[in-house]
Specification:
Strand order of the largest sheet: 1-2
Shape: globular
Strand content: under 5%
Radius of gyration: 30 Å
Number of helices: 28
Distance between the termini: 95 Å
Largest sheet: 2 strands, antiparallel
Helix content: over 70%
Length: 702
């Protein structure tokens, strides 16, 4: 009789173990089906209540009821499948331990293989739903039924030119790639890469687009992106735990506890982003009485209920799982799912999943409902249409202090970075370890400069005038990174973040893997970092990337991230103190620095002498009244790049020289101490060699 080999155990294929696994698979399928059904019903009821699926008024062209009602339903399937794929990949990459520490990174870990199988199936459903959604989105936007003879031709001709279709197609293709790679993947590193890739596929759906005329557009887009990703990780992780509870076996308690910590971060992010998103669409408290506002209240109630359930998990359920784990494991062999801790966990997890499904369905209907506050204005200016903000007044000297426009994403990033760093320093102090005050001050100053640059006068005027943009660029790429590098954040993290003893992958383990990776050995080469730093300037400004960054929110975010990261890498290879590849000698680092300064000066001169306006037709279109000559302003910006770039370069050169001096001084002290210990044996040996050579020369002359 054929046998089933699993976890080193053999048993008949018709035994109770197999029936238990089949029953577990049926139960998981029923849970997923219930989640989808609840989400679909909630979406239908909510769409009916708000009129989101009603025909367009005024006799406008309509794609028909099939398209109108299928769109939210397809989106529900899309969101649930995407969440399950991301959650399964996250568990496989970071939360599933091996039975030993060596097995945690093994390519054939059975629990990880099970999670990757679930991720593969979910990602394929995600991709199919995304492709169908692109077709229905075009039909709805064009008001063209699917049966129209010209539908296919119009779809293929418009799919890349219409932004919602383009980003939907990109997300779908990435989902197919994730599914295909996950089907053959086995290692934890690949699972981690697929997690990042799948998060990108979801983020583009929230970050894409630039609705003209909405002064709160970027706040709304940032909130939606954070909302989508945090909801997907939270919901997907919980669904993955329910589906994978049998393969996880005695690791269920470990994985559930790791997931609980991630879920808490998602809960906070979801709440903050939800409030920000609601405030951009609800003008007053009275708007809560509108159909849109009522659905927002339903989501709030679901959010509160999930928060209570999460607190119950953290305080009671997880402890009981750990307490009953040994007994269950001993009774069932694989751990838990048939014993008390399986029932204990599943009971609340299924209830949470259904509440999450309700929130998903309502959110899908909300996305197609008209909010009380219009998202566009009747007659937007060119600047408002392209940047999302009206033309700022002419700057004055006081503007450097008084001009502020909060960019919530950048503000939250800076405050979070400062908060985590200070928390690490406090942890070191409490255990009696010292940390240099100058490093803390450097880190805090760097992020405060970043917050000022992105939320202050440079962030406002840098969106519409080239000279202000170049000042912003120089601050983000050449000033802020120096302060951040001298803060030594990796060293602090490695000293304060606790290592994981259960074989899972945490922040400290990821940092150590990065520090010793071949990737960092390549990008950490000073020549590579210098070439990347300079060539990215050329590619960015003399291609369409600059115009894309000026008039799309996604491009603006990627531009800012690129400036800071490439600047950080360049400063780190020169003056960084964090661990990494073997450092070049100070002399060679100074050669690289001076060569880069020369190329950077050439970049500034090229802009000063340029006769072609960069950024395409952006600056002539926005036509800022106080910028009378856009080309002259661009040349002035080139002078800014040349002038501002010199001071940070001088600081870098002085820092390298100081490190060189300290290294030589420390080496001299070390040699003196060794000489005191061994009676200067090295000098004596050297003198003896010289004497021997002298005697040999005298002998040869005779």
């Amino acid at each position: 009789m054929p046998t089933l080999q699993r976890d080193g155990l053999a048993g008949p294929r018709t035994g109770p173990r197999v029936w238990a696994e089949r029953g577990s698979g049926v139960f998981s399928a029923l849970v997923l089906a219930a989640v989808v059904v609840v989400a679909l019903l909630a979406s239908v009821v909510a769409a009916r209540y708000t009129g989101a699926a009603d025909p367009l008024p005024g006799g406008l062209s309509d794609a028909g009821p099939v398209v109108r009602w299928s769109l939210p339903l397809v989106r529900v399937v899309h969101d649930v499948a995407a969440s399950l794929a991301i959650g399964s990949l996250l568990l496989a990459a970071t939360m599933i331990p091996g039975r030993t520490r060596a097995e945690s990174a093994a390519p054939d870990e059975p629990r990880r293989a099970a999670a990757l199988r679930v991720a593969t199936a979910a990602a394929f459903v995600w991709a199919v739903a995304g492709a169908v959604g692109v077709v229905f989105t075009f039909a709805d936007a064009a008001g063209m039924p699917l049966s129209d003879p010209l539908f296919g031709q119009n779809l293929t001709g418009s799919i890349w030119s219409i932004e919602p279709l383009r980003v939907g197609l990109i997300s779908t293709v990435v989902a197919f790639v994730v599914a295909s790679v996950a089907a053959v993947a086995r290692s934890r590193a690949v699972a981690l890469a697929l997690t990042v890739l799948s998060a990108f596929a979801l983020l583009v759906l929230g970050l894409a687009g630039h609705a003209g005329g909405s002064a709160d557009h970027e706040t709304a887009v940032n909130a939606i992106a954070a909302h989508l990703l945090s909801a997907a990780v939270w919901v997907g992780g919980l669904l993955a735990l329910v589906v994978l509870r049998r393969p996880l076996g005695d690791a269920l308690g470990v994985v559930a506890r790791r997931y609980s910590r991630v879920a808490l971060w998602c809960f906070v992010t979801l709440g903050v982003s939800g409030v920000m998103s609601a405030t951009t669409r609800l003008g007053s408290w009275s708007d809560l009485a509108t159909p849109y506002g009522v659905l927002v209240l339903v989501k709030v109630l679901a959010f509160v209920a999930l928060g209570v359930a999460g607190a119950w998990h953290r305080r009671i359920t997880l402890d009981r799982i750990d307490a009953t784990g040994a007994t269950s494991s001993g009774a069932t062999g694989s751990g838990s799912t048939g014993g008390p801790r399986g029932r204990l966990f599943v009971r609340l997890a299924v209830a949470e999943s259904l509440v999450m499904a309700l929130a998903f369905g309502v959110a899908t209907a909300l996305a197609r409902s008209e909010p009380p506050v219009p998202e566009t204005v009747a007659d937007p200016s060119a600047a408002l249409s392209l940047t999302g903000y009206p033309v700022p007044p002419a700057p004055t000297a006081l503007s450097w202090l008084t001009a502020w426009r909060v960019e919530w994403l950048f503000l939250a990033t800076g405050l979070l970075a400062i908060g985590l760093y200070v928390a690490g320093v406090v942890r070191l102090r409490r255990r009696g370890d010292a940390w240099p005050v100058l490093r803390t001050l450097s880190w805090v100053v760097g992020w405060l400069l970043f917050v000022y640059a992105t939320n202050g006068v440079l962030g406002i005027y840098g969106r519409v005038a080239f000279s202000w943009h170049m000042t912003l660029h120089m601050l983000e790429a050449m000033v802020v990174p120096i302060f951040l590098v001298l803060g030594a954040p990796v060293t602090l993290a490695l000293r304060t973040v606790r290592p994981r003893r259960d074989g899972t992958l945490g922040p400290r383990e990821m940092l150590l893997a990065l520090v010793h990776s071949r990737f960092l050995a390549v990008v950490g080469n000073p020549v590579f970092a210098a070439v990347l730093f300079f060539m990215s300037l050329v590619v960015f400004y003399w291609t369409g990337l600059f115009q894309l960054a000026l008039q799309t929110h996604t491009g603006h975010l990627l531009m800012t991230a690129h400036f800071v990261l490439t600047g950080y890498l360049f400063a780190w290879v020169l003056v960084g103190v964090d661990p990494g590849p073997k450092r070049w000698s100070p002399a060679l680092r100074l050669v690289v620095l001076f060569a880069t300064i020369s190329f950077h000066a050439f970049f500034g001169v090229a802009m000063i002498s340029g006769t072609t306006l960069l950024g395409g037709d952006f600056f002539p279109t926005v036509a800022i009244p106080w910028v009378t000559d856009a080309l002259a302003d661009q040349r002035y910006g080139g002078g800014v790049a040349w002038a501002i770039g010199e001071l940070p370069s001088l600081v870098l050169a002085l820092t390298v020289a100081m490190q060189w001096f300290r290294t030589d001084s420390a080496e001299s002290v070390r040699q003196d101490r060794r000489a005191d210990r061994d009676g200067d044996a090295e000098l004596k040996a050297y003198n003896e060699r010289l004497a021997a050579l002298a005697r040999r020369d005298e002998g040869s002359q005779r």
